[in-house]
Structure formats: structure tokens, C-alpha cells
Amino acid sequence: MELLQVALFMIISYRTQVVYSARDRGFDDFLRYSPFPSSSFYSHFLQPDDVDNGRYDQPNFVSTNLCTRSCEVNSPKTCYWKFTLEAYSTLNKACGNCTSKGVCTTPNAPQCVMGDGYERSILVVNRRMAGPSIQVCKGDTIVVDLHNKMPGRSTTIHWHGLTQRLTPHMDGVPMVTQCPILEGNVFRYKFLADAAGTYFWHSHDGFQKMDGIIGNLIIRQPRTSDPNSRYYEYDNPSHVVLVTDWYHNTTSDERWPGLRLHDVGQLPDTFLINGKGSYP
């Protein structure tokens, strides 16, 4: 009976403190009135989404607040991201004028998602594919505020490979470690980067990760603690390769349970490297 009471208390506390609606207010306003520390507190620790694009490989781009850095012993940081999840499309207006062959006038413009040059509906985080690159040091605290703006869809984010010791409710498994994050809601993930390694994060709701909700998660350690340090000279933020299989269906949900007369099987149409590819 005592165990049951504790479990019920955890569920009630979880539902009332962790999930809150953002339907009637702006994202920043909602965080300001949430039971958590306000976004203004974490804004000092806000990280860029694009540390893997090559610009941050140069020392002149390194700031004191940047969590993507050369790691030192006993020098932890708080690292904060805002994730906005939306329904989107490849070859969108940000890409400029596009042809049916997938050739666009501004393919590298902000918010342009090219994919493999085939137009289809997708799901994105911060209008990027792949999503924001999280690169931190062992011992850092990762904080992610997720705003679900996908119409009619729930979601969660799973941090693939992390054991979530002491923070199992941050593991992102719907109906197991947390309630699904409904449309219009905001959820705060907060956990310790306690194990160095190459990981990735992705949606754990349906097949959303196959439609674009995916990104890399790199936890570095001091070079003196890295048993492989003698095998490389540079470990730049851009030295990350994320390979994903890619379907041309409107959504990947159409691949389950599968079709019999066309598009039979589960083989992808192409593969993407860091969210980009080429389709004949």
C-alpha cells in the first residue's frame, strides 16, 4: 500500500508540474508564468542550433557561453536549447524558386530544407533537418524546452544511448516515463550529460523520427581522459555524420503496416547525410 501511494503521488506531481499548456500564450510568456525557472534565467545559457555547420570549428567563434568547446576537468556548464516542433515541407518557400527536379535558387538559406530534392511533407525542429546539434562536455547540464506546434500530433524526445540515471522521467518514452506532449504544450527536459560518447536524439512517438525529428548529441570529455585521443588531432564540431533512411511518402506512417500493390516493403527511397541527399 505504501508503494502504491508513492507511485500515485509521483504521477500526480508529474502531471501538474511538468506539462503545461501554451495554446493561449506566446512561448516566452508561457515559460515566464510556468512553475519552472523562467526562460529569462536560462536565456543566458541559450545555445546556437548550428554548431555542426563548420563555422564553429574556428577559435574566433568560441564564446564563454558556448557549450561546444574543448572540455576541461571540473568545469561544467548549463546548456539550454529551445525546440519548436512543426509540420513543414521540403523545397519550401525559404528555398526560393524550385524546379520539379529539386533545384532551388536559395538552397542554403535559413529555414530551407532540401532533403534529397524530392518535395514531401516533413516534421521539423526549429525548421531544420537534421535538428539542432547538441554538443556538450561530460558533466554539463542539458536543458531543452520543447514546444509542440504540430497540429493533431503528440510527441516526446528520446535521448538515445543515455541511461538517465536519477532522471528516468526525462527518457522520453510516452506512456512509460512521461505523458505525451500534446499539441500546443510545452515540456522541459533537464538531465546530466554523465557519459561521454556519440549519441543522437529523436522523437519517440510513432514514426516521427523518420519524418525529420532527429539530431545528433555529442558528449565530449577532456582529452586527458579520452582513451582514443592518440588516434586523432582534431575533434571539430563539424566532424559529425548523421545518416538517415528517407522515404518519399507523404509521411512515414504510410509504411506501417505496409502496402501490397505499390511501394511494397520497407526499403527507403534514398539516404540522407546530415539531412541532405541526392535523388535521381
TrEMBL record:
Residues 113-222 form the Plastocyanin-like domain. The keyword Repressor does not apply. It comes from the Eukaryota. One of its GO terms (molecular function) is oxidoreductase activity. The keyword Transferase does not apply. Keywords: Copper, Metal-binding, Oxidoreductase, Signal. Residues 1-21 form the signal peptide. GO terms for biological process: iron ion transport. Coiled coil: none annotated. One of its GO terms (cellular component) is plasma membrane. PANTHER family: FI03373P-RELATED, MULTI-COPPER OXIDASE. Belongs to the multicopper oxidase family. This is Laccase-2-like. It comes from Diaphorina citri (Asian citrus psyllid).
